[in-house]
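Fold this sequence, please.
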Amino acid sequence: MVGRRFDHRLVLLAVVAAPLCAASAPQPPGAIVQLGADVAQGRPLALHIGGRVVTNGTAPDMRYQRQWPGTYLEARFRGPAVDLAVGPGDVSLRITVDGRAPIALVRPAAARYRIAAPGTGDHRIRIDVVSESQAGPTSFGGLFAPPGTTPLAPPPPRRRQIEFIGDSHTVGYGNTATTTDCTQDQVWATTDTPHGPAGITAAHYDADYQINAISGRGIVRNYDGFAAPTMPQAYPYALLDGKTPERSTGWHPQVVVFALGTNDFSTKLKSGERWATRDALHADYERTYAAFVRQARQRYPGAFVLLWATDLANGEIAREASRVAANLRQAGDRRVAFVEVDGLHFTGCHSHPDLADDRTIAATLERVIDAQPRVWDRHK
């Protein structure tokens, strides 16, 4: 699936209200029905998982717990259907079988769901988490083969890997909205991380990806100075709990993309914040951001590191981020670069980038990445 692009046609299905009992008739391709408690669990499918996930073997519907955005599961099976176990927590899912039009499953109850496949042959399924989950982690029990279905080996990991570290612009905050005036529930419902700049860029390169981003967070200062862990403080953890350490295995991205600073600088300093002047905030940001990038360099020594920023806040965000990249290069890191993205329309929720903007951002990132020699040849 090199150069795959997302299909924006969503099949919005209402999950069958009455649970499906063991004797129910087969469903048409693309149908999703909730299974009753009397339906036995089938054999588990081996999964290829993208994003930070904590494996917990104690509860059947909570085997895989996640909270960072952009998580995805991929698997293969032979047969007419496959079962998905969803645990507690509000989540919006996009389910794709064999590259057909995606199916939306929004805020499903904790249960198992049967997904009908088009025919009885070999199939590939992908489940994308579309929504942001700052309020709490969500979980999956996995994918299972009901009677008549055979688990197959999962899709292999992709050779290319990209990690994205950022804020709401990376999350895809409210990017599908038709108005900038949104309630918090509307923000949640219109956020589409796979169609944000990270998902689009990764799709362009047919790359596996992690999206380690939190709306509202900054390098040293969160939006309007609100109290919460900043991105460098939250980053070491697999969940947003500040205690579950991140332990991804087999993760060696050739490209790491940072986009941080919008929340540090988009609002005025208030009385009581620890920076007496804007210059003091600048100095703290530049120092802390550089240290954060150096930590990534230690973790991924061969990666190309790209910092980007918009031209918001009268250019303050881009100026500061560019200084960080310049200082790192002056200190000897020649595999770091900065690019400013302008010409955006910001018609998403609360004047965030919209889908067209996300495509512009992704195209800009792709141009810079493509200009790097042998960027995908580095694995460690």
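The radius of gyration is 21 Å. Confidence is low (pLDDT under 50) at residues 1-18.
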